[in-house]
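## Example pair
The file below holds two records. Each record gives the amino-acid sequence first, followed by its structure token line.
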Amino acid sequence: MKLVIVSGMSGAGKTIALKAMEDMGFYCVDNLPIPLIEKFVDILSGSDERMRKTAIGIDVRSGSELPKLRDVLSELDRRQVSYDILFLDASDKVLLKRFKETRRSHPLSKDGRVEDGIREERKELMWLRDKSRFVLDTSSMLTRDLRNQLEQIFSGDQGFRNLYVTVMSFGFKYGIPEDADLVFDVRFLPNPFYVDELKHRTGLDPEVRDYVMRGEDGHVFERKLEDMMDFLIPRYINEGKNQLVIAIGCTGGKHRSVTFAELLYAYLSGHEEYGTRIDHRDINRS
């Protein structure tokens, strides 16, 4: 039997995660009353093959019963029942934005402010986050990114280590991304903007990429950047970091930064220890 408890912050993507896991063959139950979890596990142990992979959604909607989850998990540990905990998280800023976009009320905000509900929820769930085997920060994820991560986690890959790397191109004229962990400036490279036939193209075009990488500087920087990632990322994993945003900037975010973001993404996406995605923030700006 494979049992996964899916929890996390409201608005972080738990519903999407449960639907994705259902597509992967899990029998999914959302918001199961906590006092029923042990009995449900007993039922699963004698169930047919269809329920041998089960995901249970638990969150703050459990209300006053939520603290009882500690005792339930302790009992499962005592009985040597194998289970994993998947915790979905996101920054407070992103969660607030999602609630405003959907015009939903936070389950803990009552008639008050959503910010207060998020703050209280984070306090109540901190212990569960710390106990979780898998923690996914969905702040920069699209739905397909979350699905890809879940497939990587639950497809038998025991080497997954929680870290999700976003490689982002951007233009300095529009500001440095607020969520960037590492920022690299590639404005020292040849600028295709001043070449008429390349000006309105982007770093996704081979002609632009060839222009940016002409000479030795681009290739030297590429090797040094890859060496730095080989050094840093395993250490971030060991420290328990679950979200890393690498921002690469040029003046407008269309040519040089896009070229190098694509090169770095291609290099990092070959590694199985972490998930990767790419985001060209300013490529469509005029």
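Second record, same layout:
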Amino acid sequence: MKKESKDIKYKQRTILVWNEIAPFYHKRWARNEIGPFNVTNELIKLSKIKSGDSVLDLACGTGLVTKKIARKVGKNGMVYAIDSSKTAINIAKKWVGVKENVRFIIGDAETIQFNTKFDAISCQYALFFFPNAKKVLKNLKKILKKNGMIAMSVHSKTNVPYFDSILNPVRKFIPDYLPKYPELDRFGTAKTFREEFAKAGYQKIVVRKLLYHYSPGNFSDYWNNYKKYLSEPLKQKFNKLSRYQKSNLREIVKDNTAQYAKKDGKIIFPWEVLVLTARNS
């Protein structure tokens, strides 16, 4: 299969998944700014956004970052919030509310065009979803002012046991559980994150490592909520496991989480986040 065809298929699947999961993603994670979503304020701070700026919030999701940027730029500024999921955009519109300085757009990060140029571009937890990240970054350079700031956050590849505790053993039971293309953790180290921006021509690239913590409750909460909030494609694969396999998998995952459990059984995971800032040359 040609790369372009793979990219299109992946994008279509991603849109379907996010149209499905956006409501509980917002309710469970984003709106409460828990765990890794504590990074939002830091992302905006590092973006150097000021009153009157024009800002692009790329892959805005359900509007967490957009809402805060709108306050930051004030009535004389403007925020354009883009996402490929119509459901996420609809939630964001309700979350942000009707504001003169915010525009929501359904679009593709690789091809989106504007007549204006932006003072800053933000993107929280989305770069790894773009199959052709280099094309996205080069497209953003065209609409970012000279010396304009771009700021993005991604999950670390090495210190997010919330994911690894369950995904690593699941992949052994279900080898095709997650798509191998693109690799979702490919920007999870400071080196790979920085290199992607350098290849796209950005300057003054800085990557910061920030550590947060998140508790999913006790092990039963963690396990049951994981199953509850699976997207339909993953749920179908998971449910094909036999009762014995599910029981075996559960015990492996429980062993993986034991080191993060406190005496009362509450699990507290560390969660490392990488935040990159760069300037347009």
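Notes on the second record: The two ends are 36 Å apart (CA to CA). The longest strand covers residues 202-217.
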